[in-house]
Design goal:
The complex is a heterotrimer of chains A (485), B (94) and C (484).
Chain A: H1 6-14, H2 20-38, E1 41-44, H3 46-61, E2 72-76, H4 103-110, E3 114-119, H5 153-160, E4 166-170, H6 177-183, E5 186-189, E6 210-214, H7 217-227, E7 257-261, H8 271-286, E8 290-294, H9 302-317, H10 336-347, H11 350-363, H12 368-389, E9 395-399, H13 415-419, H14 426-431, E10 435-442, E11 448-455, H15 460-473
Parallel strand pairs in A: 2-3, 2-4, 7-8, 7-9
Antiparallel strand pairs in A: 1-3, 4-6, 5-6, 5-10, 9-11, 10-11
Chain B: H1 4-13, H2 23-41, E1 61-62, H3 72-75, E2 82-83, E3 86-90
Antiparallel strand pairs in B: 2-3
Chain C: E1 6-16, E2 53-54, H1 55-67, E3 71-72, E4 75-76, E5 78-82, E6 92-96, E7 102-103, E8 106-111, E9 114-127, E10 131-137, E11 140-144, E12 151-157, H2 164-180, E13 193-202, E14 212-217, H3 220-239, E15 247-252, E16 257-260, E17 273-274, E18 281-282, H4 285-294, H5 299-308, H6 314-320, H7 324-337, H8 341-359, H9 370-381, H10 387-398, H11 404-411, H12 419-432, H13 434-441, H14 446-458, H15 465-482
Parallel strand pairs in C: 14-15
Antiparallel strand pairs in C: 1-12, 1-13, 3-7, 4-18, 5-6, 5-17, 7-9, 8-9, 9-12, 10-11, 13-14, 15-16
Helix pairs in contact in C: 1-4, 2-3, 5-6, 7-8, 7-9, 9-10, 12-14, 12-15, 13-14, 14-15
The chains are: A alpha/beta (485), B alpha+beta (94), C alpha+beta (484).
């Protein structure tokens, strides 16, 4: 059963070929059997999952099911789910049980999707390798000595190993697209404001956006149909009519202008990755797309700008973790300030602390203009580059990550090398644009490579169309890690 | 580039205890990050409006109505220390 | 007060806006609930929650801007003020920093009859913090977050105030204004209106001295005392060769002194930056026009109208417009009487205000509604009762004994204005008091008063005094005319 994509599972459920309970039991068995070696999950709750599966079966029996009813899914462990431990991969929330549902959790549960577990992640979504999790690193299902990417590494690995057919993630600087690329699955980050951030524990509020992983672009469209939409509880949620993200899947690509940023195809890009991406672009050409060379002249500033803005927002967002109202509190302290200092020193991991300190510094008196304000201005320049580029093309294509999955431990002691993992994804977040990654071949060591497709604001349906047409012509997305039966 | 004193100052601002023996290593890591950031500072941004949000919209307003009910028992379930409905902390000095 | 020194004061006033729900959450703002029962997920800063701005708070800020003649920003921005404190759940306060909702404006104050314009720097929207309770919980403090997220308008004056008295006059005028326009209940015991005072001293003409900020002054009396104390402290310090250190101080009402706040000792670095969870607040000209149309007449305009339109003395007009409830009451009385504003003002500012003071209530909560007072005023004006009886009638009305006419009838207070009846009494008195008549004739004016008294007594106080005077004078003249 785990070999079928989401749409096929939905068809099997609708035809009563198998029940949701059977499907969920199958996936739970698979998790029990395989996750020990992957560490993709922080929490799995059989009891809750089976209860939800039985409820979904009743709904299906009444003929009231939708395309996700009875489908097992997993949430990245920063989406609050009522009654579920929600840790954000951190010690500081190791005992915190969410008392409410995130908008995304509510929507997917409302569609009858069955939550089986919460996936591992870089602590507070800060990382590109999933090694900063308090709960240990996630292993890449293609090679367990390598990283799955991050920060949504647990979700990407869970889908890659077919522990669940689909999972949620968040993407602040590439945290869906980069692990999707490294794990050989499809992943989408929608336009900022398309998916409500309510109940999604914040890392950098102006960059965070929830999205999804699945086997195929069609799976992603089904997930987005449930997840996206206006939510009055998020002031940055955009009020617009609902849409069916599958609506353009059947359309051919003839005449589609695909922008190829000059700055994406340079020496920074590993040759094996470049070869796969170029091959994918050739395939798009065969499907009728027209390549257009474009330029994103401020692309090289995206990583520096991001490492001012994201830490600044994070330093403030993470101030609420102070050991007063919930979460971890240090066992011993001398006074109030000592309580704060020890709780936060012991509760946060090294990377989170580094980013909080960078953020505090760039906002502090005397440095604000030179760092934070300047970063906001350069951010506008980066966003403008895209606006101009989209006058000449319909979508932009390029790599999602500069290399294939790297060995565990290789970059974990070198923050700057780790930050450069997001070279091709970060500018999309700064501009607030949607982006996706779909498998497009295998590079060094037989490891998967992703093709990134960037769309204009709220142009997800077109991006999914491109990815779907590509997936109809190729089978990279159907490949499985050989060692996981 | 940050001095050791600046590292201590921001750690204090952020309420994160850094053992004195780790300040120098932390300084080095932070300065590595600031080395990466540095190239952004030289860009000419005269006349460019800062971009604080990913979308160019204005704030939506909520109607003034009470929509929340008392859930303090639920919210305080996992609290570190609670008494008589209050969160307890070491004595606050004014 | 301190010879040779000029005092410079600016006030920062926090007015709690009278919304039903909090500024960024749907929790109630009602005062006095059990601890943390009105602290929602947003107010507690649970992971993942987000703020959404309350329209009621914005409307109130617009009203304030209009009332003080300030500029209402077409675009203002919410910022985060970052600091750690247990009553601040997010570790930052959402406030406005670079772009506040109201810029400029002024408040007109009067101290001992002298008027002065106090300029406002700005007014901005922000959220209140919770409360730390210092009763003993095994040596710990208890945190109640019910107040966290209550909407505040922080109103900042320019350093235009030159004495504690001026500061108090400014605070009182502002207090009256925010209640007048219905944006704040003004309840100072509950902390709905509280002031921080920035105080410095200098030699006249010298540049501004170093200022100290005195926090959380929640009564006008404390405001005055704290400033007076602080001025003395600073002057003595300087005169003794010391230097004022810029710091935050607290007023200790028990000791009657200010002291440095220990928690604010280290220089704060609030790391303000625009809140990424909230988009810029846009206020359209239409929204401003809507509030302008809905605004009540402002006290200054009403005061002018009372002077120019009603011909009231300035002092009456000022007192009547000190509170909207009193001004509205006065207007209702004048309307019900159908004019005679001076007579109405006398009653409202006299007996009625005395009653309010005794009961410690506002004009709209007193036991005598405007129509009832108007009923009484009319009876005085048409001579039905004497001014003296009217006070008794008012007391009876205040005691809930009914309307003026009913009380007059029940107590038999109606004046006798029938000339024939009064003449008969006068004749009787003249006949029975030959001595006084003679004295009067001999030029003793006092004898006349005695005769009036006799007539009033004989009428049991009901004779119309004006008529008694007139008839008595005429009759005595006749008697005099008959004399040889």
């Amino acid at each position: 059963m785990h070999d079928r994509p989401l749409a096929a599972l939905a068809a099997g459920l609708a035809a009563r070929e198998f029940s949701s309970e059977e499907l969920v039991r199958h996936q739970l068995d698979r998790i029990a059997r395989l996750d020990g070696g992957l560490n993709a999950f922080i929490t799995v709750d059989e009891e809750k999952a089976l209860a939800a599966a039985r409820a979904a079966d009743e709904r299906l029996a009444r003929g009231e099911g939708g395309p996700l009813t009875g489908i097992p899914i997993a949430h990245k462990d920063l989406f609050c789910a009522k009654g579920w431990k929600t840790t954000c991969g951190s010690k500081i929330l190791s005992n915190w049980v969410a008392p409410y549902d995130a908008h995304v959790v509510e929507r997917l549960a409302g569609e009858g999707a069955v939550l089986v577990g919460k996936t591992n992640m870089d602590e507070f979504a800060m990382g590109s390798s999933n090694e900063s999790s308090f709960y240990g690193p996630v292993k890449n299902p293609w090679d367990r000595t390598r990283v799955p990417g991050g920060s949504s590494g647990g979700s990407a690995a869970a889908v890659a190993a077919r522990l669940v057919p689909a999972a949620t993630g968040t993407d602040t600087g590439g945290s869906i697209r980069q692990p999707a690329s490294l794990c050989g699955v499809s992943g989408i980050r929608p336009t900022y404001g398309a998916v409500s951030r309510y109940g999604m524990v914040a890392f950098a509020s102006s960059l965070d956006q929830g999205g999804a992983f699945g086997e195929s672009a069609e799976d992603l469209a089904l997930m987005l149909n449930a997840m996206a939409g206006f939510d009055p509880r998020d002031s940055t949620s955009v009020e617009r009519p609902g849409e069916d993200y599958r609506r353009d899947l059947a359309k051919p690509l003839a005449g589609l202008r695909v922008g190829l940023p000059r700055e994406y195809f340079t020496a920074d890009l590993a040759p094996d990755v470049a070869a796969c991406v170029t091959g994918a672009i050739d395939e798009l050409k065969r499907l009728g797309a027209v390549p257009v060379e474009i330029s994103l002249p401020n692309q090289h500033l995206a990583v520096p700008v991001y490492y001012v803005i994201a830490p600044a927002e994070a330093s403030s967002n993470l101030s609420r973790f102070d050991g007063v109202r919930y979460g971890f509190r240090a066992a011993e302290y001398a006074d109030l300030n000592d309580l704060y200092r020890k709780t936060r020193a012991q509760g946060f991991g090294a990377e989170v602390k580094r980013r909080i300190l960078v953020g505090a510094y760039v906002l502090s008196h005397g440095y604000y203009d030179a760092y934070y304000l300047q970063a906001q201005k350069v951010r506008r320049l980066i966003a403008r580059d895209f606006t101009e580029a989209f006058e000449a093309c319909d979508v932009i294509a390029g790599p999602a990550a500069p290399t294939v999955a790297f060995p565990l431990g290789e970059k974990s002691n070198d923050p700057v090398q780790m930050y450069l993992e997001d070279l091709y994804t970060i500018s999309v977040n700064l501009a607030g644009l949607p982006g996706l990654s779909v498998p497009c071949g295998f590079g060094a060591h037989g490891l998967p490579v992703g093709l990134q497709v960037i769309g204009n604001y709220f142009d997800e349906a077109r991006m999914l169309q491109v990815a779907h047409r590509y997936q109809l012509a190729t089978d990279w997305h159907r490949r499985r890690p050989g060692n996981l039966r | 580039m940050l001095t050791l004193d600046e590292v201590r100052r921001i750690a204090d601002l952020a309420r994160i205890e850094v053992p004195e023996g780790e300040v120098a290593a932390l300084q080095q890591q932070l300065n590595g990050i600031f080395g990466l950031i540095e190239q952004m500072r030289a860009v000419d941004t005269a006349g460019v409006e800062p971009m604080a949000h990913a979308i160019d919209l204005t704030q939506r307003l909520r109607e003034d109505a009470v929509t929340e009910e008392d859930r303090h028992a639920l919210y305080q379930e996992g609290a570190p220390q609670v008494e008589a409905g209050l969160y307890l902390v070491p004595k606050v000095i004014e | 007060m301190s010879a040779g020194w000029e005092v410079v004061i600016g006030l920062e006033t926090h007015a709690q806006l009278s919304t039903a729900s909090k500024i960024f959450s749907g929790a109630s703002t009602a005062f006095g609930a059990a601890p943390n029962t009105q602290a929602s997920a947003v107010d507690l800063a649970l992971p993942g929650v987000l703020p959404v701005l309350n329209a009621g708070a914005v409307v109130r800020a617009i009203r304030f801007g209009l009332a003080v003649g300030g500029t209402i920003a077409p675009r203002s921005v919410f910022a985060r003020k970052n600091y750690f404190y247990p009553d601040l759940p997010k570790g930052y306060q959402i406030s406005q920093f670079e772009l506040p909702v109201v810029v400029g404006g002024e408040i007109l104050i009067a101290v001992e009859g002298v008027e002065k314009r106090v300029r406002l720097t700005r007014a901005h929207l922000e959220e209140d913090a919770g409360k730390s309770l210092h009763e003993d919980f095994h040596g710990m403090s208890g945190i109640d977050l019910n107040r966290a997220g209550t909407p505040l308008l922080e109103i900042v004056s320019e350093p235009d105030l030159r004495s504690a008295k001026e500061a108090v006059a400014y605070a009182k005028t502002l207090h009256s204004l925010v209640r007048w326009i219905g944006i704040c209940d003004g309840n100072m015991q509950e902390g709905s209106f509280r002031c921080d005072a920035n105080v410095s001293v200098r030699r006249p003409g010298a540049p501004l001295g170093t200022r100290c900020e005195i926090k959380n002054l929640n009564s006008f009396r404390f405001l005055e005392k704290a400033i007076d104390f602080e001025v003395r402290r600073q002057v003595e310090l300087i005169e003794d060769g010391g230097k004022v250190v810029q710091e935050t101080r607290l007023w200790d009402p028990q000791k009657g002194e200010t002291r440095a706040m220990r928690s604010k000792e280290d220089a704060q670095d609030y790391r303000y930056f625009p809140d990424p969870d909230l988009l810029p607040l846009e206020i359209t000209p239409q929204a401003i026009a809507r509030e302008r149309d809905a605004m009540p007449e402002l006290p200054a305009a009403m005061r002018e109208r009372f002077i120019a339109g009603h011909g009231l003395p300035a002092s009456d007009a000022t007192t009547l417009t000190a509170s909207k409830a009193l001004a509205d009451y006065f207007e209702a009385v004048v309307k019900a009487v159908g004019g005679e504003p001076k007579a109405c003002a006398n009653w409202v500012l006299g007996e009625f205000s005395a009653l309010l003071n005794r009961l410690e209530v506002e004009a709209d909560a007193g036991p005598v509604p405007p129509a009832a007072l108007a009923g009484l005023v009319k009876r005085v004006l048409d001579g039905t009762i004497s001014g003296k009886s009217a006070k008794d009638v008012f007391a009876a009305m205040a005691a809930g004994e009914g309307e003026a006419d009913a009380i007059i009838e029940a107590k038999g207070l109606r004046q006798v204005s029938d000339a024939g009846a009064i003449e008969a009494i006068v004749d009787e008195v003249l006949a029975g008091n030959a001595k006084q008549v003679e004295d009067y004739r001999a030029g003793k004016e006092k004898a006349f008063n005695s005769l009036v008294g006799q007539v009033m007594k004989a009428s049991r106080g009901k004779a119309n005094p004006a008529q008694v005077n007139e008839i008595l004078k005429r009759k005595l003249g006749q008697v005099a005319g008959l004399a040889p």
